[in-house]
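We emphasize that the prediction below concerns an isolated chain of 104 residues; any contacts that depend on oligomerization or on bound cofactors are therefore not represented. The input was used exactly as deposited, without trimming of termini.
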Amino acid sequence: MHHPPSTIREPPSGISLLWLLKTLGSENVTSLLVEGGGEVNASFLLGGLAHRVVFFYAPKVLGGRDSLRAVAGQGVSGSEQALNLSEVQWRRLEDDWLLTARLQ
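Result of the prediction step, given as a token string:
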């Protein structure tokens, strides 16, 4: 079934993720892949707007004071506030690893 593309216009107050998800839901969008940077990922995760996570791991070490992060934002102050994962699955993809999990 093919649907023509549609445009969603942001409200004058700007876009909030909750507004965006509700609007997409009203358009019968039931699943959304968010492929963002650290700030976008943090907004979805810390806002309680994500149900599952997918991470790719390569056999490389990156780092540095100004390096990019998978999850940025305000963060949490300790492991007791960390987001817990369940239904964790690991899959090997040649030299890389794929982790999928459900957020608790």
